[in-house]
Amino acid sequence: MKCMTVIFVNMLQEGLDVFIDDLSVYRDSFQECLDNLEKVLKRCEETNMVLNWEKRHFMVKGLVLGHQIFGKGLEVDKAKIEVIKHLLNPMNVKCVRNFLGHAGFYQRFIEEFAHISKPLNQLLKKDTSSVFDQSCVRAFEVIKKTSICSYNHYPKLVGTFYYYVDYVVGAILRQKWNNLFRAIHYASKTLIFAQSSYTTIKKDMLVVVFSLKKFDRT
């Protein structure tokens, strides 16, 4: 990220955004976008930066960092979700880890992701059974299903935001539109061993702190 920022320092926020090792080039008109793209590619040549052309998308509307931006809100990129949709049950721990990494990228769209994926996360722990039992199958199928049909609404900055926090480590940032609550962002995480022994009140406070930190960056 720092390297990318240094390379494109005078171009950032001027028709170019950088996220880790991804580039997003944009402009208001087609011609301006072409001109800006030419500048970015020239900078890549000057700095000997190698691009992965298999992952490039040229002149597309709304596709940013694996997310689809549309009129109502933010949606998962259907092309990437198709990969998850057709996956078979993982055959080993490596496959489980790869699946969670892929699906975890979209966990902001999935309510209670940490809770749902718990049986799968258990398989990644040392000195535990790696049997892909029925609880793992259910978790696997639920994540695949919810990934396919999920999206988040855009927030209205002039409205009131509501935190919905469950009893452990899940939270929702939502907003009330026409007397209906619409999800802006889902967040969740699993507890470490020490945290699992917290009292109920302390767990509640843990989730509140987690939610405030998470949604402060949303």
From TrEMBL:
PANTHER family: PROTEIN CBG26694 (PTHR37984), PROTEIN NYNRIN-LIKE (PTHR37984:SF5)
GO molecular function: catalytic activity
Domain called Reverse transcriptase/retrotransposon-derived protein RNase H-like: residue spans: 153-216
Name of the protein: Retrovirus-related Pol polyprotein from transposon 17.6
SUPFAM superfamilies found in the cross-reference section: DNA/RNA polymerases (SSF56672)
Organism: Gossypium australe
Xref: Pfam families: RT_RNaseH_2
Keywords of this entry: Coiled coil, Multifunctional enzyme
Coiled coil: 27-54
InterPro entries: DNA/RNA_pol_sf, Retrovirus_Pol_polyprotein, Rev_trsase/Diguanyl_cyclase, RT_RNaseH_2
